[in-house]
Amino acid sequence: MTVPVNVLEPGLYIVATPIGNLADLSPRAADILARADVIAVEDSRVTAGLLRHIGVKRPMVPYHDHNAEGVRPGLIARMAGEAVALVSDAGTPLISDPGYKLVRDARAAGHTVVTIPGPCAAVAALTLAGLPTDRFLFLGFLPAKAKARADAIAEIAAVRATLVIYESGPRLSACLAALAEGLGDREAAVTREITKRFEEAVTGTLTSLAARYAEAPPKGEIAIVVAPPGEAAPPPIEDADAALAEALTRLPAAKAAGEVAKRFGVDRKALYARALALKDN
Ligand code: SAM
Question: In this structure, which topology does domain 11-119 adopt according to CATH?
Answer without folding.
Answer: Cobalt-precorrin-4 Transmethylase; domain 1 (3.40.1010)
